[in-house]
């Protein structure tokens, strides 16, 4: 397919300030950017008193993969996703596995108009588009234009987000977004995020979740548990209490295993026992659907019926091995309704991995 060359585009989420300055409203950093300067993310900058999105139409990575890889497991199970990302990020995670994209402060990538991106997803028989690899809110105007078109063609849209958003960005999400995973790091503990993420606190993430609660967007929560420095159970308890108090017992929560990368190669992978301790904290708090991720073959990859205790969805990594739900997504053993949106896709056994860029 011949690609149409893309150029930067004026952003929507910003306000003008005196002396040709602008304030970006895409994320909770609220960067005030002088003329000819760039925001911390590296891809939104001030050009002649206007905030420009320099990566509009620049896709730095694109893959086809299972929705379960996001991880999203209570929404449209078994579907195939067209996952895309750009360069840049609003966080500075020292352990980032996508650091070659997220910490690259250059405008690079293949040219894709929204129409071309959606057409590529359709040609590859994908059911939805995920905006991922780096923080999607920093390129939300491009994601919005793609997402609206995708919906018009019967596809859904997913953000894999750090949740460091604003009321303005959540309001824009309502125009096109169907599902979001909000990723806590180190249980959201302040010392951890200051040292290893480069933000003052996780409070904006909690605020974003409250904004998302006002929408119809499906939400799942992940928490990257980092050994020694981001695995305090008291902070895990605080996070789980927030989830339970504000979203109830049915919100899916995933505790993810850390693997050493980027500037944290000296750390060991998270002990499985540490993840299981986090699982126990969440269950004792009353959360019904708690998962352990990045540990292929672990029993808590699967979904258990909270009434009878039997496995209703058996998983191995990103694959679904067993489906024990009826046509209404109720447990076949006891009839309890399981809060999963959509039926298991008929092609879930097909290959769902493919590199595009």
TrEMBL record:
Pfam families: Radical_SAM. It comes from the Archaea. Gene3D superfamilies: Aldolase class I. This is Radical SAM core domain-containing protein. [4Fe-4S] cluster binds at residues 89, 93, 96. Signal peptide: none annotated. GO terms for molecular function: 4 iron, 4 sulfur cluster binding; catalytic activity; metal ion binding. Residues 74-288 form the Radical SAM core domain. It comes from Candidatus Nitrosotenuis uzonensis. Its cofactor is [4Fe-4S] cluster. The keyword Zinc does not apply. InterPro entries: Aldolase_TIM, AmmeMemoSam_rS, Organic_radical-activating, Pyrv-formate_lyase-activ_prd, rSAM, rSAM_sf. Binds 1 [4Fe-4S] cluster. The cluster is coordinated with 3 cysteines and an exchangeable S-adenosyl-L-methionine. Keywords: 4Fe-4S, Iron, Iron-sulfur, Metal-binding, S-adenosyl-L-methionine. SUPFAM superfamilies: Radical SAM enzymes.
